[in-house]
Amino acid sequence: MPEVSVLEFIGVVQRGEVVSFPTDTVPALASLPEAASRIFTVKQRSPDKPLILMGARVEDFKPYVQGSEKDWALWEAMMTRYWPGQVTLVLPASGKVPPAMTPGDPQTLGLRIPDLTIAQEILAQTGPLATTSANLSGEPPLETLADIGAAFPSVFTLSHPDVPPHAKLGNGQPSTVAKWTPTGWVILRQGNVVLSEASSDE
Questions:
Q1: C-alpha dist (Å) from residue 106 to 31, 34, 86, 173, 197
Q2: Where does this polypeptide localize (predicted)?
Q3: Mean pLDDT, 10 residues at a time, over the chain (202 residues)?
Q4: Contact in structure between 25 and 171 (CB atoms under 8 Å)
Q5: How much is the pLDDT for 53?
Q6: Is the pTM of this model over 0.90?
């Protein structure tokens, strides 16, 4: 497991490598959106399972989604209420989203801002990253850097005092996922944050 400093970590991301960093839910495997095919290879993930775009700021996501001003007002209401946090919002994807990120459904894209300082600091410097949980496909999410290093020896991880190798990172639960549809929000997965489809009217 190549461990690198935060500065080195940013450089590794920018050259298209797969990395892992902690979030508020479970540790992530991540790459630049255009290098997302590497995540599918490393994780042995089926192409019908899309990746999530994580970022540090709402405005970072705007080039990647498309919708009317009215749609944006509804989306931003949810973003303001639940971000940073453990809610992924699935919105209509723009043409800027690389096909490698969502090969099974290029029409939509999941977005999230994690509620963890180190993750936000990384994402603020790299820009939005394609992400998924750090585990081989079909297996439980890995929760420590030591376990991630054992499973993914080629993946770069952080050498940082806030990220001890054997400490559990995050709460161990995946995010709640809500998808926008013409009739409002549909809940695809419940996590620690419990949403109802009535949230579209709030």
A1: 18, 14, 23, 26, 23
A2: Cytoplasm
A3: 88 96 96 96 90 97 95 95 97 95 91 97 97 94 93 92 90 94 93 74 44
A4: yes
A5: 98
A6: yes
pLDDT number for residue 1: 58
Q: Name residue, tokens 């579209």.
A: 200
Amino acid symbol at 191: G
What token pair was written down for 66?
């498309």
Cα torsion at 115, 81, 70, 201 (round to 10°)?
Answer: 140
Ordered domains of the chain (ranges, CATH): 3-172 (3.90.870.10)
Task: Report residue 94 as tokens.
Answer: 């723009």
Helix (H, G, I), strand (E, B) or coil at 90: strand
The answer to whether 119 and 54 are in contact (CB under 8 A) is yes
Q: What is the pLDDT of residue 2?
A: 86
Helix (H) or strand (E) holding 78: helix 69-82
Are 83 and 58 a contacting pair, CB within 8 Å? yes
Q: What is the 8-class DSSP label of residue 98?
A: -
